[in-house]
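REVIEWER CHECKLIST
Item 1: Sequence provided? yes
Item 2: Single chain? yes
Item 3: Sequence as submitted:
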Amino acid sequence: MRNWVLEGLLLLVLWNGLTISALAVDQAQLQSINQSWSQSAHAFADVNCSSCHQNSSTKQVTQRPNHESCRSCHESQVDTFLLGKHGIRLLEGQTALTPALAHLPMQAAAHNKQMNCNTCHDVHSVKTLPASVDSCLTCHKDTHSLNYKNSRHAELLREEGALPRPSTVSTTCATCHLPRQTSASGTVMVNHNNTFTLLPRDRMVKEVCMNCHGMEFAYNSIFDDDLVESNFARPPTLSMDTLKMVRALEKQRSGNSQSE
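Item 4: Structure as written out by the authors:
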Protein backbone atom coordinates (compact mmCIF):
# COMPACT_ATOMS: atom_id res chain seq x y z
CA MET A 1 0.00 0.00 0.00
CA ARG A 2 1.44 3.37 -0.96
CA ASN A 3 2.11 5.90 1.77
CA TRP A 4 0.23 8.84 0.23
CA VAL A 5 0.73 11.19 3.16
CA LEU A 6 4.45 10.57 3.38
CA GLU A 7 4.80 11.03 -0.37
CA GLY A 8 2.71 14.19 -0.18
CA LEU A 9 4.90 15.68 2.53
CA LEU A 10 8.05 14.83 0.59
CA LEU A 11 6.63 16.49 -2.53
CA LEU A 12 5.67 19.54 -0.50
CA VAL A 13 9.19 19.77 0.87
CA LEU A 14 10.88 19.29 -2.50
CA TRP A 15 8.52 21.77 -4.20
CA ASN A 16 9.73 24.45 -1.80
CA GLY A 17 13.39 23.57 -2.22
CA LEU A 18 13.88 22.16 1.28
CA THR A 19 15.48 18.94 2.40
CA ILE A 20 14.34 16.53 5.09
CA SER A 21 17.33 17.57 7.20
CA ALA A 22 16.16 21.18 6.97
CA LEU A 23 12.94 20.10 8.67
CA ALA A 24 14.93 18.28 11.38
CA VAL A 25 13.05 15.00 10.85
CA ASP A 26 14.23 11.69 9.45
CA GLN A 27 12.47 8.90 7.56
CA ALA A 28 11.58 7.00 10.73
CA GLN A 29 10.02 10.11 12.27
CA LEU A 30 7.99 10.73 9.13
CA GLN A 31 6.73 7.15 9.26
CA SER A 32 5.70 7.63 12.90
CA ILE A 33 3.98 10.93 12.09
CA ASN A 34 2.08 9.30 9.24
CA GLN A 35 0.99 6.43 11.47
CA SER A 36 -0.38 8.85 14.07
CA TRP A 37 -2.07 11.02 11.45
CA SER A 38 -3.65 8.12 9.53
CA GLN A 39 -5.80 7.16 12.52
CA SER A 40 -6.72 10.70 13.53
CA ALA A 41 -9.81 12.86 13.16
CA HIS A 42 -7.78 15.04 10.78
CA ALA A 43 -7.22 12.12 8.44
CA PHE A 44 -10.92 11.25 8.38
CA ALA A 45 -11.69 14.90 7.61
CA ASP A 46 -9.13 15.01 4.76
CA VAL A 47 -6.92 17.46 6.66
CA ASN A 48 -3.46 16.51 5.45
CA CYS A 49 0.12 17.77 5.75
CA SER A 50 -0.30 20.78 3.48
CA SER A 51 -3.41 21.90 5.38
CA CYS A 52 -1.15 22.89 8.28
CA HIS A 53 2.38 22.95 6.86
CA GLN A 54 1.78 25.12 3.80
CA ASN A 55 1.05 28.83 4.02
CA SER A 56 -2.20 29.41 2.13
CA SER A 57 -0.99 32.75 0.74
CA THR A 58 2.71 32.23 -0.03
CA LYS A 59 2.51 28.43 -0.54
CA GLN A 60 5.76 28.14 1.41
CA VAL A 61 6.36 25.31 3.88
CA THR A 62 5.58 26.20 7.49
CA GLN A 63 7.94 24.07 9.56
CA ARG A 64 6.26 24.76 12.90
CA PRO A 65 2.59 25.66 12.50
CA ASN A 66 1.21 27.84 15.30
CA HIS A 67 -2.23 28.93 16.46
CA GLU A 68 -2.76 30.92 13.27
CA SER A 69 -2.51 27.70 11.27
CA CYS A 70 -5.15 26.14 13.51
CA ARG A 71 -7.45 29.15 13.14
CA SER A 72 -8.43 28.24 9.58
CA CYS A 73 -10.53 25.38 11.00
CA HIS A 74 -10.75 26.12 14.72
CA GLU A 75 -11.51 29.83 14.83
CA SER A 76 -13.59 29.81 18.02
CA GLN A 77 -11.05 27.70 19.89
CA VAL A 78 -8.18 29.98 18.90
CA ASP A 79 -10.10 33.16 19.71
CA THR A 80 -10.97 31.94 23.20
CA PHE A 81 -7.43 30.59 23.75
CA LEU A 82 -6.04 34.06 23.10
CA LEU A 83 -8.31 35.56 25.78
CA GLY A 84 -6.99 33.31 28.57
CA LYS A 85 -3.71 33.43 30.47
CA HIS A 86 -2.25 30.78 28.20
CA GLY A 87 -2.64 32.92 25.06
CA ILE A 88 -3.10 36.56 26.09
CA ARG A 89 0.56 37.42 25.52
CA LEU A 90 0.26 36.31 21.89
CA LEU A 91 -2.88 38.42 21.48
CA GLU A 92 -0.95 41.44 22.77
CA GLY A 93 1.93 40.84 20.34
CA GLN A 94 4.34 39.60 22.98
CA THR A 95 6.34 36.39 23.16
CA ALA A 96 4.42 33.27 24.11
CA LEU A 97 3.81 32.51 27.77
CA THR A 98 6.19 29.99 29.33
CA PRO A 99 5.70 28.18 32.67
CA ALA A 100 8.78 30.02 33.93
CA LEU A 101 6.71 33.24 33.88
CA ALA A 102 3.84 31.75 35.89
CA HIS A 103 2.98 32.65 39.50
CA LEU A 104 1.85 29.10 40.32
CA PRO A 105 4.39 26.31 40.96
CA MET A 106 5.39 24.64 37.70
CA GLN A 107 7.41 21.59 36.72
CA ALA A 108 11.04 22.61 36.23
CA ALA A 109 11.39 20.52 33.08
CA ALA A 110 8.57 22.51 31.46
CA HIS A 111 9.82 26.01 32.27
CA ASN A 112 10.81 26.84 28.69
CA LYS A 113 7.71 25.43 26.95
CA GLN A 114 5.99 28.08 24.84
CA MET A 115 2.22 28.05 25.20
CA ASN A 116 0.49 27.38 21.92
CA CYS A 117 -2.06 24.91 20.58
CA ASN A 118 0.56 22.20 20.07
CA THR A 119 1.85 22.58 23.64
CA CYS A 120 -1.23 20.72 24.87
CA HIS A 121 -2.35 18.88 21.74
CA ASP A 122 -0.42 16.20 19.91
CA VAL A 123 -0.78 17.78 16.52
CA HIS A 124 -0.56 14.55 14.52
CA SER A 125 -2.68 12.11 16.53
CA VAL A 126 -5.15 14.87 17.52
CA LYS A 127 -6.31 12.82 20.52
CA THR A 128 -7.87 15.17 23.04
CA LEU A 129 -7.74 12.83 26.06
CA PRO A 130 -4.02 13.49 26.75
CA ALA A 131 -4.69 17.23 26.42
CA SER A 132 -7.43 17.03 29.07
CA VAL A 133 -5.18 15.95 31.95
CA ASP A 134 -1.66 14.80 31.03
CA SER A 135 -0.74 18.01 29.23
CA CYS A 136 -1.86 20.05 32.23
CA LEU A 137 0.26 18.04 34.65
CA THR A 138 3.27 18.31 32.36
CA CYS A 139 3.47 21.96 33.46
CA HIS A 140 1.34 22.49 36.58
CA LYS A 141 2.83 21.53 39.96
CA ASP A 142 0.44 23.29 42.36
CA THR A 143 -1.30 21.22 45.04
CA HIS A 144 -4.75 21.44 43.44
CA SER A 145 -3.43 20.09 40.12
CA LEU A 146 -1.32 17.32 41.63
CA ASN A 147 -4.25 16.13 43.75
CA TYR A 148 -6.39 15.51 40.68
CA LYS A 149 -5.06 11.98 40.16
CA ASN A 150 -6.25 10.98 43.64
CA SER A 151 -9.69 12.55 43.22
CA ARG A 152 -13.05 10.89 42.62
CA HIS A 153 -13.19 12.70 39.29
CA ALA A 154 -9.97 10.99 38.18
CA GLU A 155 -11.26 7.65 39.43
CA LEU A 156 -14.33 7.96 37.22
CA LEU A 157 -12.13 8.82 34.23
CA ARG A 158 -9.93 5.78 34.81
CA GLU A 159 -12.99 3.55 34.97
CA GLU A 160 -13.89 4.60 31.41
CA GLY A 161 -10.61 3.21 30.08
CA ALA A 162 -8.52 4.50 27.19
CA LEU A 163 -10.45 6.79 24.86
CA PRO A 164 -9.38 9.09 22.00
CA ARG A 165 -11.30 11.91 23.67
CA PRO A 166 -13.09 12.41 27.01
CA SER A 167 -16.70 11.25 27.02
CA THR A 168 -19.61 13.48 27.94
CA VAL A 169 -19.49 12.17 31.51
CA SER A 170 -15.73 12.48 31.99
CA THR A 171 -14.50 15.03 34.52
CA THR A 172 -10.97 16.11 33.66
CA CYS A 173 -8.96 19.27 34.22
CA ALA A 174 -10.36 20.53 30.92
CA THR A 175 -13.95 19.75 31.87
CA CYS A 176 -13.83 22.45 34.55
CA HIS A 177 -11.28 24.87 33.15
CA LEU A 178 -12.22 24.66 29.44
CA PRO A 179 -16.00 24.26 29.63
CA ARG A 180 -18.04 22.92 26.73
CA GLN A 181 -21.00 24.63 25.15
CA THR A 182 -23.49 22.93 22.81
CA SER A 183 -24.95 25.03 20.03
CA ALA A 184 -28.53 24.80 18.78
CA SER A 185 -27.29 22.56 15.95
CA GLY A 186 -25.74 20.16 18.44
CA THR A 187 -22.14 21.16 17.77
CA VAL A 188 -19.98 21.02 20.90
CA MET A 189 -17.56 23.95 21.24
CA VAL A 190 -14.78 24.08 23.81
CA ASN A 191 -14.01 27.42 25.44
CA HIS A 192 -10.19 27.49 25.45
CA ASN A 193 -10.02 30.54 27.73
CA ASN A 194 -8.44 28.69 30.66
CA THR A 195 -9.21 31.50 33.12
CA PHE A 196 -12.87 32.02 32.21
CA THR A 197 -14.30 29.93 35.06
CA LEU A 198 -11.75 30.90 37.73
CA LEU A 199 -13.17 34.24 38.86
CA PRO A 200 -15.71 34.97 40.11
CA ARG A 201 -15.97 31.50 41.61
CA ASP A 202 -19.70 31.25 41.11
CA ARG A 203 -19.08 31.27 37.35
CA MET A 204 -17.56 27.81 37.80
CA VAL A 205 -20.74 26.72 39.60
CA LYS A 206 -23.00 27.88 36.77
CA GLU A 207 -20.85 26.82 33.83
CA VAL A 208 -19.54 23.50 35.18
CA CYS A 209 -20.46 22.18 38.63
CA MET A 210 -24.23 22.25 38.25
CA ASN A 211 -24.00 20.08 35.14
CA CYS A 212 -23.57 17.22 37.61
CA HIS A 213 -24.18 18.55 41.15
CA GLY A 214 -26.96 20.39 42.92
CA MET A 215 -26.62 24.12 43.46
CA GLU A 216 -26.08 23.98 47.24
CA PHE A 217 -23.52 21.17 47.02
CA ALA A 218 -21.67 23.11 44.30
CA TYR A 219 -21.57 26.43 46.19
CA ASN A 220 -20.51 24.78 49.46
CA SER A 221 -17.68 23.06 47.57
CA ILE A 222 -16.31 25.86 45.41
CA PHE A 223 -16.03 28.36 48.30
CA ASP A 224 -14.21 25.90 50.59
CA ASP A 225 -10.52 26.74 50.02
CA ASP A 226 -9.23 23.55 51.64
CA LEU A 227 -11.58 21.42 49.57
CA VAL A 228 -10.52 23.14 46.36
CA GLU A 229 -6.86 22.63 47.31
CA SER A 230 -7.49 18.90 47.79
CA ASN A 231 -9.20 18.76 44.39
CA PHE A 232 -12.52 17.89 46.02
CA ALA A 233 -11.25 14.81 47.84
CA ARG A 234 -14.26 14.73 50.20
CA PRO A 235 -17.85 15.98 50.38
CA PRO A 236 -18.25 19.65 51.37
CA THR A 237 -18.55 20.57 55.05
CA LEU A 238 -19.13 24.29 54.47
CA SER A 239 -22.65 25.56 55.08
CA MET A 240 -23.09 28.98 53.55
CA ASP A 241 -25.05 31.55 55.56
CA THR A 242 -26.61 32.93 52.39
CA LEU A 243 -28.30 29.61 51.65
CA LYS A 244 -29.51 29.37 55.25
CA MET A 245 -31.04 32.85 54.93
CA VAL A 246 -32.78 31.93 51.67
CA ARG A 247 -34.16 28.78 53.26
CA ALA A 248 -35.40 30.69 56.32
CA LEU A 249 -36.99 33.37 54.14
CA GLU A 250 -38.74 30.74 52.03
CA LYS A 251 -40.04 29.07 55.19
CA GLN A 252 -41.33 32.40 56.46
CA ARG A 253 -42.89 33.25 53.11
CA SER A 254 -44.56 29.86 52.84
CA GLY A 255 -45.91 30.18 56.39
CA ASN A 256 -47.36 33.62 55.69
CA SER A 257 -48.88 32.36 52.46
CA GLN A 258 -50.62 29.51 54.22
CA SER A 259 -52.00 31.80 56.98
CA GLU A 260 -53.56 34.04 54.35
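Item 5: Key structural point noted by reviewer: Residues 13-22 have pLDDT under 50 and may be disordered.
Item 6: Recommendation: ____
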